[in-house]
């Protein structure tokens, strides 16, 4: 019984670590060249206002904030489904998890190499967007745009999202995979909410980030390389064990 409890605690710590990585991956996805520069115009369009109105008009900011919430719910819906589906697929291979770790680790490292520019994967050099026609200015339209955005595998979003899906496929249950993709959705979606709520204050930091896109992409690539290498060598589990030892409170979660 004691060993079982220890195993459960280790699994919980592992999931928390994976969630932190997924949330960071979501944030890096937001900071990518295909998301950050268009975030403000995208939000203004969803709220049915102009970017200037979003900056100066309190009422316009409220409309944009409501639209942003609906948008994040839309993209979260897709990511939760993807996480659940990938975990269901991964369970068929759970008995060969060692080989799966090697496969997923190498795949994620390949994505990392794409990000740092060492290689270029043609699949991630294309955009696949869903046309939802004119849906600006309504809550339903913002939700539909969130669904479309989540399916829009742009060159920047695709590799990171694919890597997190690979980690989700390696989870032991569909629920854990869904939670992992929810963490990714929050990492990607919460910055949209912050831009909607504090656009005037964030214009300066956003401009600085746009000037340093190359560095952000390299950081993204290094994150993918690190996650892939940890999966490949089994260090993900070791780091989870260290987390459990460093923060015993994690043993009471779950």
How does this structure look, described?
It is a single chain. The model is unreliable at 1-11 and 128-132 (pLDDT under 50). 78% of the residues lie in helices and 0% in strands. It has one domain. It has 11 helices and no strands. With 254 residues, it is mostly helical. Helix 1 (2-30) packs antiparallel against helix 7 (157-169) and helix 5 packs antiparallel against helix 10. The protein is globular and about 55 Å long. It has helices at 2-30, 36-47, 51-56, 58-91, 97-116, 139-151, 157-169, 174-197, 199-211, 213-233, 235-246. Belongs to the DsbD family.
Provide a concise account of the structure shown.
The chain is mostly helical and 254 residues long.
- Average pLDDT level: 76
Series of secondary-structure elements, N-terminal to C-terminal: HHHHHHHHHHH
* Strand element count: 0
Write down the overall geometry.
Answer: globular
Helix content: over 70%
Largest sheet: none
Structural class by sheet pairing and helices: mainly alpha
Q: What are the segments in which pLDDT stays under 50 over at least 5 consecutive residues?
A: 1-11, 128-132
Cα-to-Cα separation, first versus last residue? 16 Å
Total number of helices = 11
Beta-strand share of residues: under 5%
Number of domains: 1
Tell me the radius of gyration: 19 Å
Protein name: Cytochrome c biogenesis protein CcdA
Main location: membrane
Membrane topology: Multi-pass membrane protein
InterPro entries: Cyt_c_assmbl_TM_dom (IPR003834), Cytochrome_c-biogenesis_DsbD (IPR051790)
